[in-house]
Amino acid sequence: MTEFSELMKDNLLGNPHSESPSSSLATHYVETARHRMLRFFRADPEHFDLIFVANATAAIKMVAEGVRDENLWVGYHGDAHTSLVGLRQLANLGNRCFLSDSEVEQWLAQGPELQMSEKSKGGQRPMGLFAYPGQSNMNGRRLPLDWAGRIRRSAARSNSQMFTLFDAAALVASTQLDLSDHVNAPDFTALSFYKIFGFPDLGCLIVRKESGHVLLKRSYFGGGTVDMVINGALGDAWHATRQTSLHEALEDGTGAFHSIAALHCAVDVHTRLFGSMTQVSQHANHLASVLYDQMAGLTHRNGRTVCTIYKSRTANYKDRKSQGPTIAFNIRDVHGRWIGKSNFEHLAMKYGIQLRTGGVCNPGGIALYLNLTAAELRENFEEGLRCGNGIDEMHGKPTGIVRVSFGAMSSMREVETFLNLLTVLIDKESSWEGLQRPEDSEGHSGHSGQSTGSSQSEKMTNMSEKQDFGNRSLNHKASTGNFYQQQDMTMQSQSRLPPRKRDALRRLMCF
């Protein structure tokens, strides 16, 4: 933010659709950022173009605009984000949700034939679109990266139109996206930059140039994407789309040139602080692996498991190809009853812990891991369940999950802090007052949030809870041994250092 502030103070940027000095400077920042981000993802500009959009969903919607008038079949993976699932609304030839990787593999083995009905649309050639994420945004499971190339080769053999849309939003936050093999790369890759850098709020669609013609079939055109427009008042409603590049034909209106310029600052600072994305990946997955192992072993004194963790059987936190640094879970109390996700989030907020709860925009993952049928989901909706409304359990099943994720700035101290918070819940009941949200005491069930004011009694309660937090932390360490004994020799040596030096070393050892 400091570097971006200096950039803004030292430079005047103007609308790139002009030739003034400020506009030319903005154009320079935009085009150099475009090529820089292609290099960041190892995408050769000869084979790829990068289109700046608001976020990953806007990138997906851009693909949707290109195919919406086609004779279309859509396939999507069960781990897909809601924004990918929405593509099925465009599929006049039907759609299919692949519930597992094995279903996709069977489909590929048979040849990805378009699962079309007998509907036709003016004799158009059928088109297929297969959409899937690189990483589940629910539990971090990583999906195979070779599907795009296999689908392309199969489509070429059968002379069919089958394209791939790759949602890389969750994946790029903590690993290197490598598009160096353009032959086997996805046709369209959607992502958000803020998931990598934190700032700016910006996304992009990376397009294989060989597949770019699909996007040019859209009906709409906006300012900056046309070379000539006749408005119709002269009796001829006509326009000519720009032909020089894909991004010039598709980036409607004035781009977010200040945010795009900020990408230069973001990449510089990120590289200076954290090194390569490979280093980020190693670091983040190590933290997740440590936390997972510890969470999996947490039990109440009666032997009941504290954490129910939603991990794929094929995933391994020590294998970065199969699992990202994300853990999805729910908490059970000493009697085996669910502790509401909203109540747990409220408790975490008291101790400065930021996490995500709810359905996390992953309907397939929620249904699979919480064992919810379509009939149960409809019944829950009819009985009042809505996204984010704070209803945590219905008919004995959770309605969502708790999710923690690690990235470049995460540290081992955060792992230990979170584990200490979990130990507060050992032997507690779900009705424990420390878990109750302010609105619960008033008979409401709205979304959890921190109270803007606290009475003296509430402050005393918080102090008591924090004291219990510290006592439980000490008891946990005494009963389980030194936390860092389960790490490598370097981590073991840290535990013998004085606290101030140990903390400094931990910061240095982020990577």
Can you tag this structure with a few keywords?
511 residues; alpha/beta; seven-stranded mixed β-sheet; five-stranded antiparallel β-sheet; globular; disordered C terminus
User: Based on DSSP secondary structure assignment, what is the total number of beta strands?
Assistant: 16
Radius of gyration: 25 Å
Q: Structural class, please?
A: alpha/beta
The major sheet is characterized as:
7 strands, mixed
The total count of helices amounts to: 18
Helicity level: 25-40%
State the oligomer: single chain
Order of adjacent strands in the largest pleated sheet: 1-7-6-5-4-2-3
Name the beta content range: 5-15%
What is the typical, i.e. mean, pLDDT? 86
Distance between the termini: 22 Å
Outline type: globular
Unreliable stretches: 441-511
Summarize the structure.
The protein is built from 18 helices and 16 strands. It is of the alpha/beta class.
Give your account of this protein's structure.
It is a single chain. The chain is an alpha/beta fold. Helix content is 39%, strand content 15%. It contains 18 helices and 16 strands. The chain has helices at residues 2-10, 21-40, 56-67, 82-85, 101-110, 147-158, 194-197, 246-250, 257-274, 277-296, 341-350, 363-369, 374-382, 412-424, 438-441, 456-480, 489-494, 499-508, and strands spanning 48-53, 72-77, 95-98, 127-133, 161-167, 188-192, 203-208, 226-231, 237-241, 307-309, 326-332, 338-339, 356-358, 393-394, 397-398, 401-405. The strands form four sheets. It has a seven-stranded mixed sheet with strand order 1-7-6-5-4-2-3, sandwiched between helices. Strands 10, 11, 12, 13 and 16 form a five-stranded antiparallel sheet that branches. A two-stranded antiparallel ribbon has the order 8-9. Helix 1 crosses helix 9 (257-274) and helix 14 packs across helix 16. The longest helix has 25 residues, at 456-480. The chain is globular, with a radius of gyration of 25 Å. Residues 441-511 have low confidence and may be disordered.
